[in-house]
Known about the structure:
The structure holds two protein chains of two kinds.
Chain A: H1 2-33, H2 51-57, H3 60-93, H4 99-110, H5 118-127, H6 134-158, H7 162-170, H8 175-186, H9 188-203, H10 207-212, H11 221-230, H12 237-265, H13 268-272
Chain B: H1 2-48, H2 58-61, H3 69-76, H4 78-110, H5 115-130, H6 133-144, H7 149-158, H8 165-168, H9 170-195, H10 199-207, H11 212-223, H12 225-240, H13 244-250, H14 261-271, H15 275-300
Amino acid sequence: MRQKNSIKIAQYIVLGIIAVLFLVPLLWMLFSSVDPHAIQSIQMPSRLTLDNFKAVISDKSILRSFGIGLLMSGFQAIFVVLICVLAAYPLSRYRLPFKRPFMLTILFLTSLPMTAVIVPVYQMFLYLKFQNSLIATTIFLISTSLPYGIWMMKNFMDSVPIDLEESAWMDGATVGQGIRKVVTPLMLPGIFTVGIFTFTGSWGNFFVPFILISSPEKLPASVTIFQFFGNNGLVNYGHLAAFSVLYTLPVVVLYAFSQAYMSKGFSFGGALK
Amino acid sequence: MNSSETIGRIPNRSKKRNQIKRTFGLLAPGVLLLLVFFITPMVLTVIFSFTNLSLTGDAAANLKFVGFQNFVTMFKDPELANSIWKTIIFVVFSAVIGQCFFGFLIALLMRGKNKTFRRVVGLIIIAAWVTPEVVVSFCWVAFLSDGGTLNKILVSLLNIKPIAWLYSFPMISVVIANIWRGTAFSMMVFQTALDDIPAEIEEAAVIDGASRWQITTRITIPMVRGTIATNIMLVTLQTLGVFTLIYTMTGGGPGNATSTLPVFMYKQAFVSYQLGYGTAISLVLLVIGAVASLLYMKVLKVKV
């Protein structure tokens, strides 16, 4: 019994050490953001200050990059949800001859590395004079989220029983009304999951805007933050940490919000039926 | 008989026709976007990789097919061999060994622990996963820098000179940062799988006198074997395309030390302006990704 206890204590200690190792880099960022004399290594702030945050917020170019990021990610999430609900409907409700190959193609596309198509996309943008266009970049980002979105949305819609819809039709509802008034409210968790996943993915996406957007005043926060610490030499760690905290905040809030729904997506079995 | 069948068929057939119309209408926006921005670029990847496409110089004006020249250049290019090798190291150590192994270990250790403790440890690990890639990179560049936390600890404990981790051990640095960032995903996948194992099975083994180690290796691990395989495939696919973390931490360097395929492709296409060569490299990436993706679907035996 005593041996069993000591094993358990050892396990607690190992987990504790792992947790500390995971925490330290993040804690450094949090401490530095409120430290007037932040340095590269972690230290207790000599006193707490919000000056770093004030400096970041009063910087117009940073604010603009936040606004651009918000608009890009927001529009992306909304359009992905809309297009995916529409596409999921026939895939979930009708017997279609091409359903199986279509869904397999979708699944195949979800796991391809997006990095691999950026050169031709860049070339397409040059040819169509789309380069440096926020709208075109957002549309491209929407397209890249579709495979995942359609796949998830179809599975969520499958779990909404068709009987409810049928009784709405009996009462004279059209198919469109059925989707809006019956199916959509019943799959709100799924819609939020897809929306939040899309938003956070886009908010953190550095690569696509980095390649497709060239003027500094059009860059979203993900790229601005890199330019901030890429322009090394005189790095103000306090400001940069505050910027990072503000930039991470929306994702953390959305994650906390989606917790209840997200956990469902993690069992492979459930998502693939 | 004959007439009733016809009568029965007409509304049915128009219903069917309506369904087909609606299907095309509803699928159109999604399919159109996928065709233009996803399928077309993939087809173009194949086409461009056989051309002399370039951003500057003569080739920028007149595009020419050059046959397999890009591929010949590529396979003669020692940098390609280097970058394939670096990609393998990065994927194997940070994804397969790092994220999967640690994710599984943490999930295993967390079983049967105090609920609050579990939640706190879980949240800390998930926080690293939720953090945007650029911020992860920033935190780790600072953590590993000359005056960073790691060196402070090492200097005070071992009394050695600070180590310039990102210059002396660039691959280890990005591998560790990627493990830190991605372990939560595997942890959550394995936690779900382990929670699904019926308690009776392990309880029965305890009664039969099996040791903890025996239960883990002979019962628990075999029972989640499927999940382990799927997770390795998924994490491999995610890690193959990692660009941001490596590029923002080391820029692929020093030299070519961390120049994995995505970084190498970026350098060729957007720094050297050899878009044709860059696409040839992306084709390699695409093919590896496609094969891994097909394998993944095979392992999963997807039902659609």
